[in-house]
């Protein structure tokens, strides 16, 4: 995966699903975003972990029942 594509996925996850992630996942995503914005390389193990976090299944939102 190219860095630009990874950056887009990270931004989407931060903007759209940030409340779903655990604290360590939020930190990982924000650090990776800062690394990519500063054009610093991301290591292969870090890239694999990021992809696992980004592809994790999200819980479905329940519809509120109207009474």
What does it look like?
With 67 residues, the protein is mostly helical. It contains three helices and no strands. α1 packs across α2. It has helices at 3-17, 23-37, 44-54.
Key traits:
single chain; 67 residues; mainly alpha; 3 helices; elongated
The rounded Rg comes to: 14 Å
The succession of helices and strands, N to C, reads HHH
Distance between the termini: 47 Å
Number of strands: 0
User: How much strand?
Assistant: under 5%
DSSP helical segment count? 3
Mean pLDDT across residues: 87
Structural class: mainly alpha
Helix content: 55-70%
The global form is elongated
Q: Report on the biggest sheet.
A: none
Uncertain residue ranges: none
Summarize the structure in short:
The chain is mainly alpha-helical. It has helices at residues 3-17, 23-37, 44-54.
């Amino acid at each position: 995966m190219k860095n630009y594509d990874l950056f887009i996925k990270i931004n989407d996850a931060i903007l759209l699903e940030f409340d779903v992630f655990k604290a360590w996942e939020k930190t990982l995503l924000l650090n990776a975003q800062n690394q990519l914005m500063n054009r610093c390389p991301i290591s292969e193990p870090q890239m694999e972990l990021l992809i696992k976090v980004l592809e994790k299944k999200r819980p479905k939102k329940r519809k509120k029942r109207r009474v």
